[in-house]
Write a structure and sequence with these properties.
About 20% of the residues lie in helices and about 20% in strands. It is an alpha+beta fold. The protein has a single domain, classed as Mannose-Binding Protein A, subunit A (Mannose-Binding Protein A, Chain A). Strands 1, 2, 3, 4, 5, 6, 7 and 8 form an eight-stranded mixed sheet that branches. It is globular. The two termini are about 25 Å apart.
Length: about 160
Amino acid sequence: MDKLHILVFAVTLIIPYSGAAQCRAGWYGFLDSCYYLSHGLATWVEANDVCKMLGGFLARIESADELTYLKSELGHIHRHDADQQLYWIAGNDFEVDNVWRWMNNGEKVSFLDWAPGEPNAAEDANCLDLWGAHEFRYADNNCEEHHNYVCQIKDTEGNQLIG
């Protein structure tokens, strides 16, 4: 490495980071979170277990900006096959039908962007996903179905994430 590259590298270690989270390869950074968009399929519970093994949790979408970011990333990945794609996120209505809560902290889901006709409260449709056929808006589905999933690692202290 020449002196200029060493200097640039050293400066990047000293200057505080601001903006999107810095994430490891294969993860996407937005604000204070890193997101993993799975390639494999899993039930909702299996997806949650995988996210935990990766050091995170099923994604908890808390704002329109956050959902817009994820919709954009998913849209780029699935330009030609979005209609067939579903991605699990952390919401469920296990306790009370149509009262949606985030599984990882128990808080009521405050931001909802339902696809047309959703939630449809179909039999055993207690888990929340992003439905590609409707621009990755929310839908309720049977938790035992196998779908892709979104994992999240959130940094609330301003640290760089390796997520």
